[in-house]
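Budget justification aside, the reviewers requested a transparent look at the raw inputs and outputs of the sequence design task funded under Objective 1. We therefore reproduce one unedited record. The lines immediately below are the structure tokens for a 113-residue chain.
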């Protein structure tokens, strides 16, 4: 979607601190962290929110949760973390491209930068 902030981040048109990407998803640090570790995992495909999951894209959501578990391990969030997805205006969603916030307590200097 041409006029979407997170589509632009996926396309590299807007810089981000990337943690991970594969053919289906992209993970990067939140620009305004609300926890010592705060990153976002988003589908590369534009899906507006968790309210727009369909038979066609549901596998991407499961895949994202597998990626979240792997990244949490890599970042040593061994004592747990929160996964949050806001839906719509009343749910506090400000960017209309589905994203999963991952919030953890451990602060690591990895990946560098
Ligand atoms: P929401 O409120 O929609 O659930 O979350 C949107 C998140 O995206 C917020 O936590 C906000 O800090 C983050 N965000 C907004 N613009 C940018 C940006 O340009 N780069 C990065 N890395 N995060 C952003
Ligand atoms: Zn988008």
């Amino acid at each position: 979607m041409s006029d979407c902030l997170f589509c632009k981040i996926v396309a590299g048109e807007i810089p981000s601190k990337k943690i991970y990407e594969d053919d289906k998803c992209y993970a990067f640090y939140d620009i305004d962290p609300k926890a010592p570790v705060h990153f976002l995992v988003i589908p590369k495909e534009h899906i507006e929110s968790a309210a727009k999951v369909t038979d066609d894209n549901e596998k991407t959501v499961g895949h994202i949760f597998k990626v979240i578990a792997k990244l949490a391990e890599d970042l040593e969030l061994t004592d747990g973390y929160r996964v949050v997805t806001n839906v719509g205006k009343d749910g506090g969603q400000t960017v209309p491209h589905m994203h999963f916030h991952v919030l953890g307590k451990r602060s690591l200097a990895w990946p560098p930068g």
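Residues 58-74 form the longest helix (17 residues). The beta strands are 18-21, 25-29, 37-43, 81-84, 100-104. Computational costs for records of this kind are itemized in the attached budget.
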